[in-house]
Design brief:
23% helix, binds 1-deoxynojirimycin, 5-stranded antiparallel beta sheet, alpha/beta, binds calcium ion, 8-stranded parallel beta barrel
Length: 557
Protein backbone atom coordinates (compact mmCIF):
# COMPACT_ATOMS: atom_id res chain seq x y z
CA UNK A 1 0.00 0.00 0.00
CA UNK A 2 1.29 3.43 -0.84
CA UNK A 3 0.89 5.79 2.09
CA UNK A 4 -1.57 8.54 1.42
CA UNK A 5 0.19 11.44 -0.18
CA UNK A 6 -1.12 14.32 1.75
CA UNK A 7 0.80 17.53 1.67
CA UNK A 8 1.29 19.85 4.53
CA UNK A 9 0.80 23.39 3.38
CA UNK A 10 2.20 25.97 5.75
CA UNK A 11 -0.07 28.84 6.55
CA UNK A 12 2.60 31.21 5.32
CA UNK A 13 0.82 32.24 2.16
CA UNK A 14 -0.58 35.44 3.57
CA UNK A 15 2.67 36.46 5.20
CA UNK A 16 4.72 35.81 2.10
CA UNK A 17 2.31 37.52 -0.28
CA UNK A 18 2.33 35.10 -3.21
CA UNK A 19 0.31 37.44 -5.41
CA UNK A 20 3.18 39.79 -6.20
CA UNK A 21 3.56 40.90 -9.82
CA UNK A 22 6.58 40.00 -11.94
CA UNK A 23 9.22 42.64 -11.26
CA UNK A 24 11.25 44.37 -13.94
CA UNK A 25 14.63 42.71 -14.42
CA UNK A 26 17.55 44.16 -12.51
CA UNK A 27 21.01 44.48 -14.04
CA UNK A 28 22.55 41.03 -13.84
CA UNK A 29 25.57 40.90 -11.58
CA UNK A 30 27.59 37.71 -11.74
CA UNK A 31 26.86 34.92 -9.27
CA UNK A 32 29.85 33.24 -7.64
CA UNK A 33 31.31 30.75 -10.08
CA UNK A 34 30.92 27.81 -7.69
CA UNK A 35 27.13 28.00 -7.89
CA UNK A 36 27.34 26.89 -11.50
CA UNK A 37 27.99 23.28 -10.55
CA UNK A 38 26.53 23.37 -7.04
CA UNK A 39 24.41 20.57 -5.61
CA UNK A 40 23.27 21.31 -2.06
CA UNK A 41 22.45 19.02 0.83
CA UNK A 42 20.24 20.29 3.64
CA UNK A 43 21.22 19.16 7.12
CA UNK A 44 18.77 19.33 10.00
CA UNK A 45 21.50 19.46 12.67
CA UNK A 46 19.49 17.91 15.50
CA UNK A 47 18.71 14.83 13.38
CA UNK A 48 21.87 14.11 11.40
CA UNK A 49 24.48 12.55 13.67
CA UNK A 50 24.92 12.70 17.45
CA UNK A 51 28.63 12.57 18.33
CA UNK A 52 28.39 12.69 22.15
CA UNK A 53 25.49 10.38 22.92
CA UNK A 54 23.06 12.97 24.32
CA UNK A 55 20.43 12.01 21.73
CA UNK A 56 20.67 15.22 19.70
CA UNK A 57 22.63 15.66 16.50
CA UNK A 58 25.54 18.12 16.66
CA UNK A 59 28.30 19.86 14.69
CA UNK A 60 30.98 17.27 15.55
CA UNK A 61 28.58 14.66 14.19
CA UNK A 62 28.34 16.58 10.93
CA UNK A 63 32.14 16.85 10.74
CA UNK A 64 32.36 13.09 11.23
CA UNK A 65 30.08 12.55 8.24
CA UNK A 66 31.79 14.97 5.84
CA UNK A 67 33.58 12.16 3.96
CA UNK A 68 30.18 10.57 3.34
CA UNK A 69 28.81 13.87 2.01
CA UNK A 70 31.84 14.21 -0.20
CA UNK A 71 31.31 10.67 -1.51
CA UNK A 72 27.79 11.67 -2.44
CA UNK A 73 29.19 14.40 -4.69
CA UNK A 74 27.31 17.34 -3.20
CA UNK A 75 29.25 20.60 -3.16
CA UNK A 76 27.33 22.61 -0.58
CA UNK A 77 25.54 22.19 2.72
CA UNK A 78 22.75 24.24 4.26
CA UNK A 79 22.40 23.89 8.02
CA UNK A 80 19.09 24.80 9.64
CA UNK A 81 19.53 27.30 12.52
CA UNK A 82 22.15 26.14 15.00
CA UNK A 83 22.17 29.21 17.26
CA UNK A 84 21.19 29.77 20.88
CA UNK A 85 17.48 29.34 21.24
CA UNK A 86 14.74 28.15 23.60
CA UNK A 87 13.82 25.80 20.71
CA UNK A 88 10.10 26.41 20.65
CA UNK A 89 10.30 26.54 16.84
CA UNK A 90 13.25 24.15 16.55
CA UNK A 91 15.79 26.99 16.46
CA UNK A 92 13.87 29.45 14.28
CA UNK A 93 13.38 31.35 17.54
CA UNK A 94 16.88 32.71 18.12
CA UNK A 95 18.02 34.20 21.42
CA UNK A 96 21.64 34.90 20.38
CA UNK A 97 22.55 35.26 16.71
CA UNK A 98 26.27 35.18 17.45
CA UNK A 99 26.50 31.93 19.40
CA UNK A 100 26.11 28.31 18.46
CA UNK A 101 23.58 26.57 20.72
CA UNK A 102 25.40 24.46 23.31
CA UNK A 103 23.42 21.39 22.27
CA UNK A 104 25.16 21.61 18.87
CA UNK A 105 28.62 22.56 20.13
CA UNK A 106 30.57 25.80 20.07
CA UNK A 107 31.51 28.54 17.63
CA UNK A 108 34.88 26.81 17.37
CA UNK A 109 33.16 23.60 16.28
CA UNK A 110 31.35 25.56 13.59
CA UNK A 111 34.62 27.10 12.47
CA UNK A 112 36.13 23.60 12.36
CA UNK A 113 33.19 22.45 10.25
CA UNK A 114 33.77 25.31 7.77
CA UNK A 115 37.47 24.44 7.53
CA UNK A 116 37.05 20.66 7.24
CA UNK A 117 34.23 21.03 4.74
CA UNK A 118 36.26 23.38 2.53
CA UNK A 119 39.19 20.98 2.64
CA UNK A 120 36.85 18.41 1.08
CA UNK A 121 35.46 20.88 -1.46
CA UNK A 122 32.19 21.57 0.36
CA UNK A 123 30.80 25.01 1.19
CA UNK A 124 28.54 25.57 4.18
CA UNK A 125 25.57 27.91 4.29
CA UNK A 126 23.85 28.89 7.51
CA UNK A 127 20.24 29.87 8.12
CA UNK A 128 19.57 33.59 8.48
CA UNK A 129 16.41 34.17 10.46
CA UNK A 130 16.18 37.80 9.43
CA UNK A 131 12.57 38.57 10.27
CA UNK A 132 12.20 37.77 13.95
CA UNK A 133 13.82 36.66 17.18
CA UNK A 134 12.73 34.59 20.13
CA UNK A 135 10.70 36.45 22.74
CA UNK A 136 13.55 35.41 25.08
CA UNK A 137 16.13 37.39 23.09
CA UNK A 138 17.72 40.13 25.26
CA UNK A 139 16.85 42.68 22.55
CA UNK A 140 13.19 41.83 22.90
CA UNK A 141 13.34 41.83 26.69
CA UNK A 142 14.78 45.33 26.58
CA UNK A 143 12.23 46.35 23.98
CA UNK A 144 9.42 45.24 26.31
CA UNK A 145 10.46 47.69 29.00
CA UNK A 146 8.53 50.80 29.88
CA UNK A 147 11.54 53.14 29.71
CA UNK A 148 12.85 54.05 26.28
CA UNK A 149 16.12 52.31 25.47
CA UNK A 150 18.28 51.24 22.53
CA UNK A 151 15.88 48.42 21.61
CA UNK A 152 12.55 50.22 22.01
CA UNK A 153 12.08 50.47 18.23
CA UNK A 154 13.76 47.22 17.19
CA UNK A 155 10.39 45.45 17.19
CA UNK A 156 6.98 46.57 15.99
CA UNK A 157 4.86 47.85 18.86
CA UNK A 158 1.47 49.49 18.71
CA UNK A 159 1.00 52.80 20.55
CA UNK A 160 -1.06 51.33 23.38
CA UNK A 161 -2.19 48.01 24.78
CA UNK A 162 -5.70 48.96 23.62
CA UNK A 163 -4.55 49.10 19.99
CA UNK A 164 -4.81 45.45 19.21
CA UNK A 165 -6.13 45.58 15.70
CA UNK A 166 -3.81 46.04 12.73
CA UNK A 167 -5.11 45.18 9.25
CA UNK A 168 -3.64 41.93 7.82
CA UNK A 169 -1.45 41.42 10.86
CA UNK A 170 -1.54 39.31 13.96
CA UNK A 171 -1.05 41.23 17.17
CA UNK A 172 0.06 39.79 20.51
CA UNK A 173 -1.79 41.61 23.26
CA UNK A 174 -0.56 42.62 26.69
CA UNK A 175 2.69 40.67 26.83
CA UNK A 176 4.87 43.45 28.19
CA UNK A 177 5.44 45.95 30.94
CA UNK A 178 5.32 48.46 28.09
CA UNK A 179 1.87 49.84 27.31
CA UNK A 180 1.81 48.36 23.80
CA UNK A 181 1.23 45.18 21.78
CA UNK A 182 3.64 43.56 19.38
CA UNK A 183 3.43 42.08 15.89
CA UNK A 184 4.75 38.50 15.65
CA UNK A 185 6.19 37.06 12.43
CA UNK A 186 5.18 33.42 12.89
CA UNK A 187 4.41 31.79 16.25
CA UNK A 188 3.41 34.27 18.96
CA UNK A 189 6.82 33.91 20.63
CA UNK A 190 8.62 35.14 17.48
CA UNK A 191 8.26 38.94 17.56
CA UNK A 192 8.89 40.59 14.19
CA UNK A 193 12.01 42.71 13.96
CA UNK A 194 11.21 46.24 12.83
CA UNK A 195 12.26 46.83 9.21
CA UNK A 196 9.56 49.46 8.94
CA UNK A 197 6.47 49.88 6.80
CA UNK A 198 6.54 50.56 3.05
CA UNK A 199 3.34 52.57 3.41
CA UNK A 200 2.90 53.53 7.05
CA UNK A 201 -0.69 54.32 7.91
CA UNK A 202 -0.81 58.03 8.82
CA UNK A 203 -3.46 57.15 11.43
CA UNK A 204 -1.05 54.68 13.06
CA UNK A 205 2.18 56.60 13.71
CA UNK A 206 3.64 53.54 15.46
CA UNK A 207 4.15 52.15 11.94
CA UNK A 208 7.57 53.56 11.15
CA UNK A 209 9.00 54.22 7.69
CA UNK A 210 11.85 51.97 6.51
CA UNK A 211 14.43 54.70 7.02
CA UNK A 212 13.44 55.53 10.62
CA UNK A 213 16.27 55.06 13.17
CA UNK A 214 14.88 51.76 14.59
CA UNK A 215 14.55 49.99 11.23
CA UNK A 216 17.94 51.35 10.10
CA UNK A 217 19.59 49.99 13.24
CA UNK A 218 18.00 46.57 12.72
CA UNK A 219 19.26 46.49 9.13
CA UNK A 220 22.77 47.30 10.28
CA UNK A 221 22.59 44.59 12.95
CA UNK A 222 21.55 42.04 10.31
CA UNK A 223 24.59 43.00 8.26
CA UNK A 224 26.73 42.61 11.35
CA UNK A 225 25.38 39.09 11.92
CA UNK A 226 26.12 38.13 8.32
CA UNK A 227 29.58 39.63 8.51
CA UNK A 228 30.30 37.72 11.73
CA UNK A 229 29.57 34.33 10.16
CA UNK A 230 31.13 35.20 6.79
CA UNK A 231 34.32 36.07 8.63
CA UNK A 232 34.20 32.76 10.49
CA UNK A 233 33.96 30.92 7.15
CA UNK A 234 30.29 30.63 6.15
CA UNK A 235 29.79 30.56 2.37
CA UNK A 236 26.34 32.04 2.47
CA UNK A 237 22.86 32.00 3.93
CA UNK A 238 19.48 30.51 3.38
CA UNK A 239 17.20 33.40 4.32
CA UNK A 240 14.10 32.53 6.31
CA UNK A 241 10.85 34.19 5.17
CA UNK A 242 12.89 36.55 3.00
CA UNK A 243 9.84 38.32 1.59
CA UNK A 244 8.38 39.21 4.97
CA UNK A 245 10.69 41.91 6.29
CA UNK A 246 9.11 45.24 5.37
CA UNK A 247 5.47 45.38 6.41
CA UNK A 248 2.59 46.69 4.33
CA UNK A 249 4.69 46.31 1.20
CA UNK A 250 2.03 45.11 -1.23
CA UNK A 251 4.17 45.09 -4.38
CA UNK A 252 7.29 43.90 -2.52
CA UNK A 253 9.27 46.91 -3.66
CA UNK A 254 10.58 48.03 -0.27
CA UNK A 255 11.65 44.51 0.74
CA UNK A 256 13.32 44.12 -2.67
CA UNK A 257 15.20 47.38 -2.14
CA UNK A 258 16.44 46.17 1.23
CA UNK A 259 17.82 42.96 -0.25
CA UNK A 260 19.37 44.82 -3.19
CA UNK A 261 21.27 46.91 -0.67
CA UNK A 262 22.53 43.70 0.96
CA UNK A 263 23.48 42.16 -2.39
CA UNK A 264 25.42 45.28 -3.41
CA UNK A 265 27.26 45.11 -0.10
CA UNK A 266 28.04 41.42 -0.59
CA UNK A 267 29.19 42.03 -4.17
CA UNK A 268 31.64 44.60 -2.81
CA UNK A 269 32.87 42.84 0.32
CA UNK A 270 32.00 39.13 0.01
CA UNK A 271 31.61 38.45 -3.71
CA UNK A 272 32.16 34.69 -3.37
CA UNK A 273 29.28 34.16 -0.90
CA UNK A 274 25.71 33.39 -1.86
CA UNK A 275 22.15 33.74 -0.61
CA UNK A 276 19.14 31.54 -1.25
CA UNK A 277 15.74 32.83 -0.26
CA UNK A 278 12.78 31.15 1.27
CA UNK A 279 10.40 33.23 -0.83
CA UNK A 280 9.24 30.94 -3.65
CA UNK A 281 8.81 33.96 -5.89
CA UNK A 282 11.96 33.75 -8.05
CA UNK A 283 10.69 36.46 -10.40
CA UNK A 284 10.77 38.81 -7.38
CA UNK A 285 13.56 37.32 -5.26
CA UNK A 286 16.20 37.19 -7.99
CA UNK A 287 15.79 40.79 -9.17
CA UNK A 288 15.91 41.61 -5.44
CA UNK A 289 19.47 40.32 -5.28
CA UNK A 290 19.13 36.70 -4.22
CA UNK A 291 21.40 34.33 -6.11
CA UNK A 292 18.82 31.56 -5.76
CA UNK A 293 15.21 31.17 -4.67
CA UNK A 294 13.42 27.96 -3.67
CA UNK A 295 10.25 26.60 -5.19
CA UNK A 296 8.15 25.58 -2.16
CA UNK A 297 4.83 23.86 -1.63
CA UNK A 298 2.98 26.67 0.12
CA UNK A 299 2.43 28.75 -3.02
CA UNK A 300 3.65 26.50 -5.83
CA UNK A 301 1.15 23.78 -6.71
CA UNK A 302 3.11 23.06 -9.89
CA UNK A 303 6.24 22.25 -7.91
CA UNK A 304 4.16 20.26 -5.40
CA UNK A 305 2.60 18.23 -8.22
CA UNK A 306 5.95 16.72 -9.18
CA UNK A 307 6.37 14.46 -6.14
CA UNK A 308 3.28 15.11 -4.01
CA UNK A 309 -0.42 15.65 -4.34
CA UNK A 310 -1.12 19.29 -5.22
CA UNK A 311 -4.82 18.64 -4.51
CA UNK A 312 -6.59 15.69 -2.87
CA UNK A 313 -7.86 14.27 -6.16
CA UNK A 314 -4.66 14.83 -8.13
CA UNK A 315 -1.78 12.42 -8.72
CA UNK A 316 1.87 13.44 -8.59
CA UNK A 317 3.63 13.38 -11.95
CA UNK A 318 6.41 11.14 -10.57
CA UNK A 319 3.96 8.45 -9.47
CA UNK A 320 3.73 5.20 -11.41
CA UNK A 321 -0.04 5.45 -11.81
CA UNK A 322 0.71 7.70 -14.77
CA UNK A 323 -2.20 10.01 -13.91
CA UNK A 324 -0.06 13.04 -13.12
CA UNK A 325 0.35 15.99 -15.44
CA UNK A 326 3.76 17.49 -16.16
CA UNK A 327 2.13 20.63 -17.60
CA UNK A 328 0.98 21.47 -14.08
CA UNK A 329 4.66 21.97 -13.22
CA UNK A 330 5.77 23.47 -16.53
CA UNK A 331 3.01 26.08 -16.72
CA UNK A 332 4.34 27.38 -13.41
CA UNK A 333 8.06 26.82 -14.01
CA UNK A 334 8.56 28.03 -17.59
CA UNK A 335 7.54 31.68 -16.98
CA UNK A 336 9.61 31.77 -13.78
CA UNK A 337 12.59 30.35 -15.66
CA UNK A 338 12.19 32.83 -18.51
CA UNK A 339 11.92 35.74 -16.05
CA UNK A 340 15.09 34.79 -14.18
CA UNK A 341 17.47 33.00 -16.55
CA UNK A 342 20.85 34.65 -16.78
CA UNK A 343 20.21 36.53 -13.50
CA UNK A 344 19.95 33.89 -10.82
CA UNK A 345 18.87 30.35 -10.16
CA UNK A 346 15.69 28.55 -9.25
CA UNK A 347 16.36 25.96 -6.53
CA UNK A 348 14.23 22.82 -6.75
CA UNK A 349 14.38 20.90 -3.46
CA UNK A 350 13.57 17.22 -2.91
CA UNK A 351 11.80 18.36 0.25
CA UNK A 352 12.69 20.18 3.47
CA UNK A 353 12.04 20.25 7.20
CA UNK A 354 8.60 21.83 6.64
CA UNK A 355 7.32 19.34 4.07
CA UNK A 356 5.58 16.00 4.40
CA UNK A 357 5.49 13.53 2.82
CA UNK A 358 9.14 12.99 1.95
CA UNK A 359 10.01 12.21 -1.65
CA UNK A 360 10.81 8.65 -0.54
CA UNK A 361 7.30 7.98 0.83
CA UNK A 362 5.68 5.26 -1.25
CA UNK A 363 8.39 5.22 -3.93
CA UNK A 364 10.66 2.28 -4.67
CA UNK A 365 14.26 2.74 -5.87
CA UNK A 366 13.31 2.58 -9.57
CA UNK A 367 10.64 5.24 -9.11
CA UNK A 368 13.03 7.40 -7.12
CA UNK A 369 15.69 7.02 -9.83
CA UNK A 370 13.34 8.59 -12.38
CA UNK A 371 12.53 11.45 -9.99
CA UNK A 372 16.24 12.07 -9.34
CA UNK A 373 17.08 11.88 -13.06
CA UNK A 374 14.76 14.87 -13.44
CA UNK A 375 15.89 16.78 -10.33
CA UNK A 376 19.57 16.46 -11.12
CA UNK A 377 19.31 17.45 -14.79
CA UNK A 378 17.18 20.56 -14.36
CA UNK A 379 18.66 24.08 -14.57
CA UNK A 380 19.30 26.06 -11.39
CA UNK A 381 20.54 24.55 -8.16
CA UNK A 382 19.17 21.29 -6.75
CA UNK A 383 18.80 20.79 -2.99
CA UNK A 384 18.63 17.32 -1.43
CA UNK A 385 17.08 17.08 2.04
CA UNK A 386 19.09 14.81 4.37
CA UNK A 387 17.96 11.20 4.08
CA UNK A 388 16.20 11.74 0.76
CA UNK A 389 19.28 10.31 -0.98
CA UNK A 390 18.44 6.92 0.56
CA UNK A 391 14.68 7.31 0.18
CA UNK A 392 14.03 7.86 3.90
CA UNK A 393 10.33 7.94 4.73
CA UNK A 394 8.44 10.36 6.91
CA UNK A 395 6.73 9.10 10.05
CA UNK A 396 3.07 9.83 10.54
CA UNK A 397 1.31 10.73 13.79
CA UNK A 398 4.34 11.73 15.83
CA UNK A 399 3.61 14.10 18.70
CA UNK A 400 4.75 17.59 17.82
CA UNK A 401 8.37 18.33 18.70
CA UNK A 402 9.62 21.88 19.19
CA UNK A 403 6.81 23.50 17.22
CA UNK A 404 6.99 20.97 14.42
CA UNK A 405 3.31 19.91 14.50
CA UNK A 406 2.54 18.18 11.18
CA UNK A 407 6.13 18.80 10.03
CA UNK A 408 7.63 16.64 12.77
CA UNK A 409 7.45 13.42 10.75
CA UNK A 410 9.92 14.77 8.17
CA UNK A 411 12.52 15.52 10.87
CA UNK A 412 13.38 12.06 12.27
CA UNK A 413 17.01 10.94 12.67
CA UNK A 414 19.18 10.04 9.70
CA UNK A 415 19.47 6.29 9.19
CA UNK A 416 23.11 5.31 8.86
CA UNK A 417 23.38 1.58 9.52
CA UNK A 418 22.00 -1.48 11.30
CA UNK A 419 23.46 -0.62 14.72
CA UNK A 420 21.21 0.63 17.57
CA UNK A 421 19.32 3.84 16.71
CA UNK A 422 20.32 3.25 13.07
CA UNK A 423 23.77 4.61 13.93
CA UNK A 424 22.41 8.07 14.68
CA UNK A 425 23.22 8.08 18.40
CA UNK A 426 24.42 5.89 21.25
CA UNK A 427 21.82 7.37 23.63
CA UNK A 428 19.00 5.16 24.91
CA UNK A 429 16.23 5.10 22.30
CA UNK A 430 13.85 7.07 24.54
CA UNK A 431 16.36 9.93 24.78
CA UNK A 432 16.58 10.60 21.04
CA UNK A 433 15.50 13.95 19.62
CA UNK A 434 12.86 12.07 17.68
CA UNK A 435 12.30 8.33 17.27
CA UNK A 436 13.94 6.40 14.46
CA UNK A 437 11.69 5.10 11.68
CA UNK A 438 10.49 1.81 13.25
CA UNK A 439 9.92 0.06 9.89
CA UNK A 440 11.93 -3.18 9.68
CA UNK A 441 12.84 -2.35 6.07
CA UNK A 442 13.85 1.24 6.79
CA UNK A 443 16.53 2.35 4.32
CA UNK A 444 20.07 2.92 5.58
CA UNK A 445 23.29 4.21 4.07
CA UNK A 446 25.17 1.03 4.99
CA UNK A 447 22.68 -1.27 3.29
CA UNK A 448 22.77 0.79 0.09
CA UNK A 449 26.53 1.41 -0.15
CA UNK A 450 27.41 -1.76 -2.02
CA UNK A 451 24.26 -2.05 -4.11
CA UNK A 452 24.70 -0.48 -7.55
CA UNK A 453 20.92 -0.20 -8.01
CA UNK A 454 20.30 1.55 -4.69
CA UNK A 455 18.87 5.04 -4.50
CA UNK A 456 22.10 6.18 -2.87
CA UNK A 457 24.24 5.02 -5.77
CA UNK A 458 21.79 6.32 -8.35
CA UNK A 459 22.00 9.74 -6.72
CA UNK A 460 25.81 9.53 -6.73
CA UNK A 461 25.88 8.60 -10.42
CA UNK A 462 23.48 11.37 -11.39
CA UNK A 463 25.36 14.02 -9.38
CA UNK A 464 28.61 12.91 -11.04
CA UNK A 465 26.91 13.15 -14.43
CA UNK A 466 25.77 16.70 -13.69
CA UNK A 467 29.30 17.64 -12.57
CA UNK A 468 30.78 16.23 -15.78
CA UNK A 469 28.53 18.16 -18.19
CA UNK A 470 28.20 21.95 -18.13
CA UNK A 471 25.02 21.61 -20.21
CA UNK A 472 23.35 20.00 -17.17
CA UNK A 473 24.55 22.61 -14.68
CA UNK A 474 22.93 25.73 -13.28
CA UNK A 475 22.88 28.01 -16.31
CA UNK A 476 22.83 25.46 -19.12
CA UNK A 477 19.83 26.37 -21.30
CA UNK A 478 16.57 24.51 -20.72
CA UNK A 479 13.84 23.91 -23.29
CA UNK A 480 10.82 21.66 -23.19
CA UNK A 481 10.75 19.30 -26.18
CA UNK A 482 7.65 17.16 -25.49
CA UNK A 483 5.27 17.66 -22.56
CA UNK A 484 1.67 16.62 -23.07
CA UNK A 485 -0.96 17.11 -20.40
CA UNK A 486 -1.62 13.81 -18.68
CA UNK A 487 0.93 11.91 -20.78
CA UNK A 488 4.36 10.45 -20.26
CA UNK A 489 7.25 10.71 -21.21
CA UNK A 490 8.36 14.25 -20.64
CA UNK A 491 11.31 15.22 -22.85
CA UNK A 492 13.54 18.30 -22.52
CA UNK A 493 16.83 19.57 -23.77
CA UNK A 494 19.73 21.19 -21.95
CA UNK A 495 22.54 23.02 -23.72
CA UNK A 496 25.80 24.64 -22.69
CA UNK A 497 29.57 24.31 -22.94
CA UNK A 498 29.21 23.29 -26.59
CA UNK A 499 27.00 20.30 -25.72
CA UNK A 500 23.34 19.44 -26.20
CA UNK A 501 21.78 16.88 -23.90
CA UNK A 502 18.32 15.35 -24.19
CA UNK A 503 16.58 14.09 -21.05
CA UNK A 504 13.48 11.89 -21.15
CA UNK A 505 11.61 10.62 -18.11
CA UNK A 506 8.76 8.12 -17.98
CA UNK A 507 7.57 7.68 -14.37
CA UNK A 508 4.46 5.74 -15.48
CA UNK A 509 4.25 1.98 -14.93
CA UNK A 510 3.70 1.44 -18.64
CA UNK A 511 5.96 1.94 -21.66
CA UNK A 512 5.89 5.45 -23.07
CA UNK A 513 6.58 6.91 -26.43
CA UNK A 514 6.91 10.49 -27.65
CA UNK A 515 7.39 11.74 -31.18
CA UNK A 516 9.83 14.65 -31.26
CA UNK A 517 8.93 17.84 -33.15
CA UNK A 518 9.77 17.98 -36.88
CA UNK A 519 12.59 20.48 -36.30
CA UNK A 520 14.50 18.15 -33.95
CA UNK A 521 18.06 17.57 -35.24
CA UNK A 522 20.64 15.02 -34.19
CA UNK A 523 23.41 13.33 -36.17
CA UNK A 524 24.75 11.08 -33.42
CA UNK A 525 23.29 10.08 -30.06
CA UNK A 526 25.23 8.78 -27.07
CA UNK A 527 23.46 7.53 -23.96
CA UNK A 528 25.00 9.06 -20.82
CA UNK A 529 22.66 7.49 -18.23
CA UNK A 530 19.54 5.37 -18.00
CA UNK A 531 18.01 3.38 -20.87
CA UNK A 532 20.12 2.95 -23.97
CA UNK A 533 18.40 3.14 -27.38
CA UNK A 534 15.70 5.41 -26.02
CA UNK A 535 16.17 7.91 -28.84
CA UNK A 536 15.28 6.41 -32.18
CA UNK A 537 15.34 7.75 -35.69
CA UNK A 538 12.69 6.41 -38.02
CA UNK A 539 11.21 8.13 -41.00
CA UNK A 540 9.96 10.75 -40.96
CA UNK A 541 11.71 11.87 -37.75
CA UNK A 542 12.76 11.08 -34.22
CA UNK A 543 11.00 9.55 -31.30
CA UNK A 544 11.74 8.62 -27.70
CA UNK A 545 10.71 5.21 -26.49
CA UNK A 546 11.01 4.27 -22.83
CA UNK A 547 10.04 1.18 -20.83
CA UNK A 548 7.84 1.52 -17.75
CA UNK A 549 9.40 3.62 -14.95
CA UNK A 550 12.61 4.62 -16.71
CA UNK A 551 14.62 7.53 -18.00
CA UNK A 552 17.36 8.34 -20.46
CA UNK A 553 19.99 11.07 -20.65
CA UNK A 554 21.38 11.32 -24.17
CA UNK A 555 24.12 13.48 -25.63
CA UNK A 556 23.25 14.81 -29.07
CA UNK A 557 25.81 15.62 -31.76
C1 LIG B 1 10.22 28.93 7.79
C2 LIG B 1 11.00 27.79 8.38
O1 LIG B 1 11.38 26.90 7.33
C3 LIG B 1 10.09 27.14 9.39
O2 LIG B 1 10.61 25.91 9.83
C4 LIG B 1 9.89 28.12 10.52
O3 LIG B 1 8.96 27.57 11.44
C5 LIG B 1 9.33 29.46 10.00
N1 LIG B 1 10.00 29.91 8.83
C6 LIG B 1 9.46 30.54 11.04
O4 LIG B 1 10.80 30.95 11.13
CA1 LIG C 1 24.83 15.46 20.64
Amino acid sequence: MRPTHHILLLALAAIMRPGLPIMPAAEPSPAPEWLEHAVFYQIYPQSFRDSNGDGIGDLRGIIEKLPYLRSLGVTGLWLNPCFESPFRDAGYDISDFYRVAPRYGTNDDLRALFVEARRLGLRVMLDLVAGHTSDQHPWFRESQRRERNRYTDWYIWTNSVWTWFAPNQQVVVGAAERDANYIPNFFYFQPALNYGYAQPDPKAPWQQPVDAPGPRAVREELKKIMRFWFDLGASGFRVDMAGSLVKNDPDGRATAELWREFRAWMDREYPDRAMVSEWSMPQVAIPSGFHMDFLLPYNRPGYTSLFRKAAPDEAAYFDPGGHGNIRRFLDEFEPLYEATKGRGFIAIPTGNHDTVPRIGDGRDPRELAVAYAFLLTMPGVPFIYYGDEIGMRSITDLPSKEGGFGRTGARTPMQWDASPNAGFSTAPADRLYLPIDPAPDRPTVAAQQGDPGSTLNTVRTLIALRQAHPALQASGAFATVVAQAGESPFVYERAGGGERILVAVNPAARPGEARLPAGFRCSKAQTLAGESEALRSDAPGWRVQLPAVSYAVVRLD
